[in-house]
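In the design runs reported in the main text, the only information available to the sequence generator was the tokenized backbone. The following block is the verbatim input for one such run; it is reproduced so that readers can re-run the procedure and compare outputs position by position.
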């Protein structure tokens, strides 16, 4: 942690903050109860026990919010009904592919990803099924080349690295602050950032989720019940960063907590300055794949695997752990960071959050006795429907006294 007139928690600071009891937990029992083990392994093979202490870390974090934090790691699969698929992610959009040495986790989920992946391997890939030819091309590419090109192109892909001997922090922070009544303005989409906001809402915060016409939340096109779980208590605002810039800036200035999950240059393009908001006393939660100083793009599956959270199958080859596990683990971590006090900028790098749980605790086959305790993914009750994009724009801005073009 750096200390000055303003404080921030940069990359490398303890990413989970409040996990004094993690090292004393039964790591296997936490994994077995989480729903993640049921999602790990080949579809026609046995479930596998992941390495590290992510489930134990999540369980401790969840205690801050009165939820089963470990169960949040597998929650999305409870809605989608998807199961383990080995070297294909549970959601289907990411794959583990061999390189000239080692493996890479590669996502292909956005409309332009096929073209970007073609640029990565320097040849055109077929739109209908890019995977076979992509796999052949990557098999001749070294890990460092994959990482360098992926970051340059904005591709969610990275080489799978062997984790170091990290350990989940056992440093306890000051008592969590009350957030009841605080205004949380969230620019987050998909899973990690909305989960962070939703957990703060559970403690009484008022959450306003901001979307732009150019980039609505892609999760609206996913499972509607899962989207509703994360957003039912939100108020939805839709603002154009050019046409509505003054209103957007005024909304951010009114916020006690700002959550965003974009590379810093994206919000700078909106004219938003995290340092200035922190200087006036706001808490700023910045969720990125690899930190605010990196241009790397990543999603939950490729980030977790690249950080080393994979498990070996019977052939000694890697398979995915759970369903986009870096997302809920980061959402829990980010929410805990938001409880540490005002006037702080928290650089929450998904890769660092995952890496901090990889302390050398081994994974592998589930024993016959453990198999009786493998829990299926489960979900919290959905409390209502998510508001339509922009449904509350006029009302929210009016309540805050913000002038708007409409």
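Verbatim output:
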């Amino acid at each position: 942690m750096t200390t000055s007139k303003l404080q921030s928690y940069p990359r490398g600071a303890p990413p989970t903050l409040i996990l004094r009891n993690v090292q004393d937990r039964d790591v296997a029992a936490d994994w077995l109860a989480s729903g993640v083990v049921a999602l790990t392994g080949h579809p026609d093979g046995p479930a596998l026990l992941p390495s590290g202490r992510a489930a134990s870390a999540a369980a401790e974090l969840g205690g801050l919010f009165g939820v089963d934090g470990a169960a949040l790691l597998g929650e999305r699969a409870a809605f989608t009904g998807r199961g383990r698929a080995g070297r294909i992610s549970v959601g289907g959009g990411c794959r583990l592919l061999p390189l000239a040495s080692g493996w890479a986790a590669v996502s292909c989920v956005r409309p332009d990803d096929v073209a970007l992946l073609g640029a990565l391997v320097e040849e055109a890939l077929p739109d209908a099924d890019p995977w076979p030819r992509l796999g052949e091309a990557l098999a001749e590419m070294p890990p460092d080349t994959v990482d360098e090109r992926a970051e340059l192109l904005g591709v969610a892909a990275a080489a799978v690295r062997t984790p170091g001997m990290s350990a989940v922090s056992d440093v306890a922070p000051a008592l969590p602050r009350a957030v009841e009544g605080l205004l949380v303005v969230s620019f987050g989409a998909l899973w990690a950032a909305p989960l962070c906001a939703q957990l703060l809402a559970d403690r009484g915060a008022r959450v306003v989720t901001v979307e732009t016409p150019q980039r609505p939340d892609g999760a609206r096109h996913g499972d509607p019940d899962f989207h509703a779980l994360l957003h039912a208590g939100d108020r939805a605002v839709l603002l154009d960063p050019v046409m509505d810039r003054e209103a957007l800036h005024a909304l951010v200035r009114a916020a006690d907590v700002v959550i965003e999950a974009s590379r810093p240059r994206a919000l700078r393009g909106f004219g938003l300055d995290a340092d200035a908001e922190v200087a006036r006393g706001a808490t700023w939660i910045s969720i990125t794949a690899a930190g605010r100083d990196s241009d790397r793009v990543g999603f939950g599956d490729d980030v977790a695997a690249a950080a080393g959270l994979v498990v070996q199958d019977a052939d000694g080859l890697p398979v995915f752990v759970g369903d986009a596990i870096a997302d809920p683990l980061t959402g829990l971590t980010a929410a805990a960071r938001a409880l540490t006090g005002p006037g702080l900028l928290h650089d929450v790098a998904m890769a660092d959050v995952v890496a901090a749980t990889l302390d050398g605790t081994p994974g592998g086959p589930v024993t016959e006795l453990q198999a009786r305790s493998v829990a299926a993914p489960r979900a919290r009750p959905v409390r209502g429907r998510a508001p339509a994009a922009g449904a509350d724009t006029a009302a929210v801005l009016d309540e805050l006294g913000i002038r708007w073009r409409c």
